[in-house]
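Need residues for this backbone.
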């Protein structure tokens, strides 16, 4: 297997795992906590959390996993 194929396969695996891990942690921790809060508090907290996720650390996993998986599949 050529080196470029190994790099693309590893990159797509890591990005997909990062995306899965993020959403798994999100559901298991924050969503259950928000479910116990009043709707007004939960909505404000969710909007604040959504704002905090929009950053350069999360962007590669969220926006890069699809193209990387597509490239690995080709």
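Answer:
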């Amino acid at each position: 297997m050529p080196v470029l194929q190994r790099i693309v396969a590893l990159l797509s695996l890591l990005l997909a795992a990062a995306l899965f891990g993020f959403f798994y942690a999100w559901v298991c921790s924050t969503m259950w906590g928000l479910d116990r809060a009043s709707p007004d508090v939960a909505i404000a907290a969710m909007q604040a959390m959504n704002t905090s996720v929009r950053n350069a650390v999360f962007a590669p996993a969220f926006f890069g996993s699809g193209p990387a998986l597509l490239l690995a599949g080709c």
